[in-house]
Backbone:
């Protein structure tokens, strides 16, 4: 199989568990937004989880594809 299809398949396989885990953690952090003491912690936790989810689902597969596309492409 071409490397592009393999990266797409692996990304779609991992998408649901990563989104559910990140969503549950962000939902838990939303409950401490009301507390003025933990407000900064909640904001940094929410954005940190969001950024790590985007990196895991978009940036890492793109970099992997860019790094290995020439090595694993079938000969034309």
Residues:
């Amino acid at each position: 199989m071409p490397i592009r299809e393999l990266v797409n398949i692996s990304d779609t396989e991992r998408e649901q568990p990563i989104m559910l885990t990140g969503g549950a953690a962000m939902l838990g952090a939303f409950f401490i937004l009301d507390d003025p003491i933990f407000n900064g912690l909640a904001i940094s936790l929410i954005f940190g989880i969001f950024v790590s989810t985007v990196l895991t689902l978009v940036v890492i597969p793109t970099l992997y594809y860019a790094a290995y596309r020439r090595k694993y492409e079938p000969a034309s």
Observations:
- DSSP finds two helices and no strands in the chain.
- The mean pLDDT is 89.
- Residues 39-72 form the longest helix (34 residues).
- The two ends are 13 Å apart (CA to CA).
